[in-house]
Design goal:
Number of strands: 20
Number of domains: 3
Largest sheet: 7 strands, mixed
Radius of gyration: 31 Å
CATH class of the largest domain: Mainly Beta
Order of helices and strands: HEEEEEEEEEEEEEEEEEEEEH
CATH architecture of the largest domain: Beta Barrel
CATH topology of the largest domain: OB fold (Dihydrolipoamide Acetyltransferase, E2P)
Oligomer: single chain
Strand content: over 45%
């Protein structure tokens, strides 16, 4: 009888011991570690979206008292940037971060230009991944391309679809490029203004004149040879490719044979 009682007590002791161990394990098991790149931030909901190296993106809630370390120093939510590399821990049940270790670095962003400020040398891009817009600094080291040709900040316009590379610590863009589908126009040069950098073309179909903006990226060709804007003349027959939104010409090609025929007929 005593043996049975002792055995029963031992079973109860072991069972309670297992419960005592199970609870902490469950609590630890509810915590998750996540390493990846911040692809979106929302200051209104105090959430950040992290893209891990493998797997789906995860949206994490950040409380006011969540410890945030940025490059080894105490930080806060406002200092986090899209593109930062983070190591964080969060609760799997409510997706709330318990600790964030932030390491700024290089990042790519794809999105739409919201604003361009040539005075402050900045460009604001709305990420296609959502979250807050990102404002990037632009300086002489920034490479800007429009349809594969060198361009300037002034050549970028609101609504352009762009890809940018930048350092999330300094927010300085190293590369900004956009590809836009050009419209085509054939006609005769009616006027050119080298001060305002505009070219007016009378379309061959008789429709109203079209004035195009000339940018650094505009290429001028005559007999397949690159020439300058100042080499064009009123009366030249041209074929133009341009962005119908910005009216910026990407290429103007002079048809010398047509221009010569027109001159002879006159």
């Amino acid at each position: 009888m005593m043996k049975r009682v002792a055995y029963a007590l031992m079973v109860l002791f072991v069972s309670f011991g297992m419960l005592g161990v199970a609870a902490p394990v469950f609590a630890l098991g509810n915590q998750r570690a996540l390493k990846g790149t911040i692809v979106a931030l929302n200051s209104k909901t105090h959430t950040l979206t992290v893209a891990p190296l493998h797997g789906n993106q995860v949206q994490i809630r950040v409380a006011r008292n969540t410890p945030i370390s940025r490059q080894g120093r105490a930080g806060n939510f406002a200092k986090l940037r899209v593109g930062d590399k983070v190591n964080l821990k969060f609760n799997a049940s409510n997706k709330q971060a318990s600790d964030i270790d932030d390491a700024p670095g290089a990042f790519d962003i794809h999105g739409t230009v919201q604003a361009v400020d040539t005075t402050a040398s900045t460009i604001t891009i709305a990420s296609e991944d959502g979250g807050n817009s990102v404002t990037l600094n632009v300086d002489s080291t920034t490479i800007i391309q429009r349809n594969g040709s060198a361009a300037t900040l002034a050549d970028l316009l609101a609504g352009d679809k762009v890809e940018a590379k930048y350092n999330s610590a300094t927010m300085l863009a190293s590369l900004i490029k956009t590809e836009v589908e050009d419209s085509e126009l054939e006609g005769t040069v009616a006027a050119l203004d080298t001060t305002a950098n505009t070219l007016t073309i009378s379309p061959a179909d008789g429709s109203a004149n079209v004035t195009l903006n000339i940018a650094v990226s505009t290429v001028f060709l005559r007999d397949d040879t690159v020439v300058a804007f100042t080499d064009l003349q009123v009366g030249d027959s041209v074929q133009a490719e341009f962005d119908s939104t910005s009216m910026i010409a990407s290429k103007i090609e002079v048809d010398d044979s047509s221009s010569q025929d027109s001159a002879l007929n006159r």
